[in-house]
Amino acid sequence: MNPIFWFTKQISRILHRLPKPPHHGINRSYSHVSQLMRNITGQEAKILYVGSLRETDYKYFSPYFKLICINLEKDKDINVICDAHWLPFKSSVFDGAILQAVLTHVKDAPRMIKETHNTMRAGGAIYISTPFLIEYNPAPEEYVRYTHIGVRQLLSNFREIELGVAAGPFVAIFLIIQSIAKNLSPDRDFNFVVWYIGTWVFYPLNWLDGFIHNKRSMLASSAAIYYVGVK
């Protein structure tokens, strides 16, 4: 065995017994967007939610809206199993829609947006978040990334209320460093050691991102983008 890999294997065993580096969602816009959606739709609005609920949704969205969750597979929060490209709902039945990190995972995003638009009433609100400068996410397959201009074009049938930075450039740098560390060599223990140390060393980048969060000038270098619009 390569002596470097042998050494990092011993270090890896020690590090696995230590506390893992902190982990949290990268999206900083939840609270702001939730309030923005409530201002448009009112509380208890009937909202189409594409995908499975996340931990943050229970804090920022579930308490304020009646979420109708759809997905291709059954999960504890899923109300309807269906394909977002062909929604089994009548026109104008929802007060709004939420699509978080969905655009990159569907084969025909324009069709999905058209279907979503059709199910919403006039004056309903749509919230979309999508990754930009972060690593490829294979869960499930990821087909495309959208710039802020691409998001605006994709949602051109809606009236834009706000287009902003969900996660900024320092988060993007931090996540790219993590991705490089995880794939640096063919040896899993070596990669883990580099990832563990690198995550602790570069974690303060997340704090720096807080100082410039949601500055429109950072859209071109953001880790993730959000959009709120009205039908």
Query: What is the radius of gyration?
Result: 20 Å
- Reported by name, the CATH topology is Rossmann fold
The number of helical runs is 8
Helix content: 25-40%
Oligomer: single chain
> What is the total tally of β strands?
7
Largest sheet: 7 strands, mixed
Shape: elongated
CATH class: Alpha Beta
Order of helices and strands: HHEHEEEHEHEHHHE
Question: TL;DR of this structure?
Answer:
With 231 residues, the protein is α/β, with parallel strands linked by helices.
What attributes characterize this protein structure?
Rossmann fold, alpha/beta, 8 helices, single chain, 7 strands, 231 residues, seven-stranded mixed β-sheet
Task: Explain what this protein looks like in three dimensions.
The protein is α/β, with parallel strands linked by helices and 231 residues long. The protein has a single domain (24-168, 214-230), classed as Vaccinia Virus protein VP39 (Rossmann fold, 3-Layer(aba) Sandwich), CATH 3.40.50. It is built from 8 helices and 7 strands; from the N terminus they run ααβαβββαβαβαααβ. The protein has helices at residues 3-15, 30-41, 55-60, 109-119, 148-154, 169-182, 188-202, 205-211, and strands at 45-50, 65-71, 80-81, 94-100, 120-131, 159-167, 224-230. Strands 3-2-1-4-5-7-6 form a 7-stranded mixed β-sheet, with helices on both faces. β1 (45-50), α3 and β2 form a beta-alpha-beta unit. The model has no long low-confidence stretch (mean pLDDT 89).
